[in-house]
Design brief:
The protein has 54 residues and is mostly helical. It has helices spanning 9-22, 24-42. Helix 1 packs antiparallel against helix 2 (24-42). It starts with 8 loop residues before the first helix and ends in a 12-residue tail after the last helix.
Length: 54
């Protein structure tokens, strides 16, 4: 399950705007980059899982 992290309204609105402008795939990529930056700023270390194949 998730960590229960709460996102502010500005972050949510930017996410929706970006998705509408660029499409969901690019939005996911940009959000992943932004979340990495936030984690680095806060000193949070996470393990990124390797890609799974089905």
């Amino acid at each position: 399950m998730g960590t229960g992290r709460q996102y502010d309204e500005k972050f949510k609105l930017e996410t929706v705007k970006l998705a509408r402008e660029t499409g969901t795939k690019r939005t996911a990529e940009e959000l992943a980059e932004k979340m990495t930056e936030i984690r680095e700023e806060e000193g949070i270390e996470i393990e990124i899982p390797k890609e799974r194949t089905i």
